[in-house]
Amino acid sequence: MSDATDTVTRKASGGQTIRPEEAAHFGALAKEWWDPKGSSAMLHKLNPVRLGFLREAVDRHWSGDIRHRRPLVGKSVLDVGCGAGLLCEPLSRMGGAVTGVDAAPENIAAAALHAKGGALDIRYIAGELAEQDLGQFDLVTSMEVLEHVADKRAFVGELAARLSPGGLMVLSTPNRTQASRLLLVGAAEAVGMVPRGTHHWEDFATPEELRELLAAAGLAMGEPQGIAFSPAKGLHLSSDLALNYIVTARRAG
């Protein structure tokens, strides 16, 4: 599956969440996704932090052995807003049967090419999540995507619809605080840590807002954990939610 993008049966839906300008922005960066010193350098630094949280959440949710190198064997995984596969590839190496969906065809092409080079069997699909007849998955992830969609309620609803009963969802997104306005939008873009135009502060969601969105979709949100930065530690998991946070969600009840 990794040598080409999939053709997937489409279903009619009015829940369009893709912003064309956002897809174009990230699609233009596709060729640099896998360059740790390129325009996606911040994501390369962020990825190990997200994976640390995710691995612990997976072990806790399925009562797994923390020594097991492939805790997702036998599990289906969906990563939405997958870019060029920075998260999909480690999830595949953890044993998951991984599907990645992204709004930008350029990203999907780069993801498929990179997965092929690593002999990883990952299914990649370009387009609107609501238009894909994908079924349900044991693990659904969507990292740094919520802030880029046009309709957050519709998007979270689509994510929830893809989660199997007993499944686990993991989401990360910037918090809408004065600290994130100053550092993630102002400073980070000014010094080139992220490309200009990547973030729009008014589209960030607070943990309380995300909890409400998840509840409306029938999901219960776990306790959020911050992703903070310090000169000594770099990016790291923290109790400080001011910049960015990561959460789990499960079906309520």
Automatic annotation (TrEMBL):
* Binding-site residues for S-adenosyl-L-methionine, renumbered to this chain: 50, 81, 102, 143
Which EC number(s) are documented for this chain?
A: 2.1.1.222, 2.1.1.64
Question: Which keywords does this chain's UniProt record carry?
Answer: Methyltransferase, S-adenosyl-L-methionine, Transferase, Ubiquinone biosynthesis
Identify the domain of life: Bacteria
Cite the InterPro entries for this sequence. Answer: Fumarate_lyase_CS (IPR020557), SAM-dependent_MTases_sf (IPR029063), UbiG_MeTrfase (IPR010233)
PROSITE patterns listed in its UniProt record: FUMARATE_LYASES
Q: Where is the signal peptide?
A: none
Instruction: Spell out the SUPFAM superfamilies in the cross-references.
Output: S-adenosyl-L-methionine-dependent methyltransferases
The text of the family note is: Belongs to the methyltransferase superfamily. UbiG/COQ3 family.
UniProt xrefs under NCBIfam families? UbiG
Task: Kindly provide the name given to this protein in its UniProt entry.
Answer: Ubiquinone biosynthesis O-methyltransferase
